[in-house]
Amino acid sequence: MKGLMMDYPLTLTQFFERSRRLFAKKTLATRIPSQPLFRYTYAEFAERVRRLAGGLRALDIRPGDRVGTFMWNCHQHLEAYWAIPMMGAVLHTVNFRLAPPDIAYIVTHGGDTILIVGASVWPLLEPMRRELTTVREIVIVRDTADARLPVGGLEYEDLLRRGAPVAEWPQLDERDAAAMCYTSGTTGHPKGVVYSHRALYLHSLGMAQADSFALSERDVILHIVPMFHANAWCVPFAGVMVGATQIFGGPSPQPRDIVEMTEQERVTVVGAVPTVWIGVKEICEREGHDISSIRLIPCGGSAAPRSLIELFDEKFGVPMLHAWGMTETTPVGTLSRLKSYMEPWPDDQKYTVRAKQGFPSVCVDLRIVDEQGRVAPWDGKTMGEIQVRGPWVTSGYYKADSTDHFTEDGWFKTGDVGTIDPEGYIQITDRTKDVIKSGGEWISSVDLENLIMAHPKVLEAAVVAVPHPKWIERPLACVVPKPEHHGSLTAGEIIEFLRPQVARFWLPDDVVLIEAVPKTSVGKFDKKVLRERFKGWPPKAG
Ligand code: AMP
């Protein structure tokens, strides 16, 4: 017997139309350097979304066409986030921090025909314009007060004036593509992930769940996670869905901007990768800012050190929510919320739980598979690859035949290695490619990094495998001292700090003090660069 409910498509259009009516008075704002915030209402936003769709139609954008965006976080980017999918086209957010050959590959492989580009990032694109062979029109957004517009480019505001505003949105299939995003992979070409309306719809609902980000109309969201990376964790979609006040970080937001906007606008939710929070912490500790309006800091993208979670709790009274996910999972996979019966536990035990990546979100099935291909028990010890499936997990990469990333029984192989404990909390120990295998035993570089970053003189630390004649690989710790401890922190101090905390064979063979940990285009530690730099470690005498 079939259910008798309507087969109503789960598309973004439903959220948009509801929000436009219910939350017309609410505010959206963008930071423009050295100017007051630009502000407008949801009503004005909705009108401009209709105009943008009309303008794109006038440029002959049809259902299924890809429209690329090349922008910082701003309200115009939000307009593109909604107008393009709702007209049946595909929003393709491009990471402009990638290397030029990767950008050219992504735009042409994605088949983008129009690019919407922030004036401040146009200089990155201009030298490769001729290689973008699929692109027939560039639309430029003035994103700074003194934006320089390229000669002959079409200005975004003119595009909005060009066509008739869309009055009726087309009926879409919930399985239609709404957006796409390429992963900043470390080997081979970047790979395209294509999100359906249904996936974004369900994921947005997921983010409003109390046990997830609990987003609501009362929130003031500050967008720092780049909108070109994994849908900015889908918060721009969920934020409009709930009618929250939303502030966009504008060009190149720095930790100081985050602190100032938080104080002025009484921000309640702001997510970012751990490195950003290390920067915010430094400023707040030095200058004593009040960031207590924040009710939640979703933190992920790389492992959030336990010491950072503790510090934000205890010094600033602001809870961090450690989460794990990937471009391929829209992105949220797990969230580290305490269960109610854990609340009375001692702090130490609670932080141990919260520093894990958490238990699977609704709509995400998760398992761990060991090297022999066996599903691992939930014992918190057996390490293996994390595999996931669900309605917001990718089923394949765009225009790619390879099935390497999927199991025969339909699970996505994440390439992350970890454990799952009896309560269902996963702990990521490594990427498969970052794993250190010493004499056949796994050493978790992530665990070592977190322990080292808890040392009071340490700002950042990355641990990589270096080749070893006997053990095949051994850990090398690359450590950045806090500015005030440059010259005073020693390698021996780090080793002695670790000694009581880890098994003997986990102790790094050496500790090198470096100026900064190299970062990827989205602010994660770039261990590939360190592995390359230290592959001949220790240096030969003479
Ligand atoms: P991306 O698709 O660029 O967002 O990268 C996804 C990858 O980031 C994952 O496969 C993990 O390796 C890493 N990652 C994301 N969140 C976390 C986390 N909370 N802890 C450790 N690694 C993470």
For the record, the CATH architecture of the domain at 17-253 stands as 3-Layer(aba) Sandwich
Strand order of the largest sheet: 7-6-5-3-4-8-9
Identify low-pLDDT runs: none
Mean of all residue-level pLDDT scores: 94
Shape: globular
Compact summary:
About 30% of the residues lie in helices and about 25% in strands.
Secondary structure layout plus pairing:
Layout: H1 12-22, E1 27-30, E2 38-41, H2 42-58, E3 66-70, H3 75-86, E4 90-93, H4 100-110, E5 112-118, H5 122-125, E6 137-141, E7 154-155, H6 156-162, E8 177-183, E9 191-196, H7 197-208, E10 220-223, H8 235-242, E11 245-248, H9 255-265, E12 269-270, H10 274-287, E13 297-299, H11 306-316, E14 320-325, E15 332-335, H12 347-354, E16 359-360, E17 365-369, E18 384-389, E19 412-420, E20 426-431, E21 436-438, E22 441-443, H13 445-453, E23 458-468, E24 472-481, H14 491-498, E25 510-513, H15 527-533
Helix pairs in contact: 1-8, 2-3, 2-6, 7-8, 9-10
Description of the molecule:
This protein is α/β, with parallel strands linked by helices. Among the domains are: 17-253, ANL, N-terminal domain (Rossmann fold); 437-542, 2-Layer Sandwich (GMP Synthetase, Chain A, domain 3). The protein contains 15 helices and 25 strands. The chain has helices spanning 12-22, 42-58, 75-86, 100-110, 122-125, 156-162, 197-208, 235-242, 255-265, 274-287, 306-316, 347-354, 445-453, 491-498, 527-533; strands at residues 27-30, 38-41, 66-70, 90-93, 112-118, 137-141, 154-155, 177-183, 191-196, 220-223, 245-248, 269-270, 297-299, 320-325, 332-335, 359-360, 365-369, 384-389, 412-420, 426-431, 436-438, 441-443, 458-468, 472-481, 510-513. Strands 7-6-5-3-4-8-9 form a seven-stranded mixed β-sheet, sandwiched between helices. Strands 2-1-11-10-12 form a five-stranded mixed β-sheet, with helices on both faces. Strands 13-14-15-16 form a four-stranded mixed β-sheet. Strand 10, helix 8 (235-242) and strand 11 (245-248) form a beta-alpha-beta unit. Helix 7 packs across helix 8. The longest helix is centred in the N-terminal third of the chain and has 17 residues, at 42-58. The N and C termini lie far apart (80 Å). Bound molecules: adenosine monophosphate (AMP). The site of adenosine monophosphate (AMP) has 20 residues, from strand 14, strand 19 and strand 20.
